[in-house]
Amino acid sequence: MSRAELEGLPEGVQRVVAALQAQGHGHMPRMLDDAARTAQQAADALGVALGQIAKSIIFRRKADDVAVLVITSGDRRVDEKKVEAHVGKIGRADAGFVKERTGFSIGGVAPIAHATKPVTLIDRDLLRFDVVWAAAGHPHGVFPLHPGDLQRLTGAPVVDVVQEAVAV
């Protein structure tokens, strides 16, 4: 990505680009025409399955007020009890907490390049895909990666933190 292209991007996306480049990740962010604040919006814009969206959900750890980032498939719901088994008691994080701790607004929280390093967990269900798409620091920005790259980029463990899928 050229310097001129980089300077034209929102600040959060610039941070993500720098982090991706520093770790040798070959795929740079793509800016979508419309905002993708939800996993469904991102999947629709990219023409991919909902599960291929690596959504970043921030919780607040009650013991020390640290941000807890859970990265999971767009078609799954986080099981807070399973998260707590790994990190201790958690609570919901409001928009102000998310922005302060990550440097990103809700709807654009990237899995990397946070203002303050969170405790991070990656859900194992992401591994069922060859390619997933993650937010790139802005509601219009996304980038592709192999699910295994999430572990390499974040250093986070891959665990089971989602609710059981309901058969229909």
Tell me what the structure shows.
The mean pLDDT is 92. The longest helix is centred in the N-terminal third of the chain and has 12 residues, at 11-22. This protein has helices at residues 3-7, 11-22, 39-46, 80-87, 95-102, 147-154, and strands at residues 30-31, 53-61, 67-73, 90-92, 119-123, 132-135, 141-145, 158-159. β6 (132-135) and β7 (141-145) form a beta hairpin. The chain has 168 residues and is α/β, with parallel strands linked by helices. It is built from six helices and eight strands.
List keywords for this structure.
single chain, 168 residues, alpha/beta, 8 strands
* Residues in β-strands, percent: 15-25%
Task: Give the low-confidence spans.
Answer: none
Q: Specify the number of helices.
A: 6
**Intertermini distance:** 45 Å
Q: Class by helix and strand content?
A: alpha/beta
Dominant shape: globular
Rg, Å, rounded: 15 Å
**What is the helix content?**
25-40%
The overall strand count is: 8
User: In this structure, how is the largest beta sheet organized?
Assistant: 8 strands, mixed
Which H/E pattern describes the elements?
A: HHEHEEHEHEEEHE
Nearest-integer average pLDDT: 92
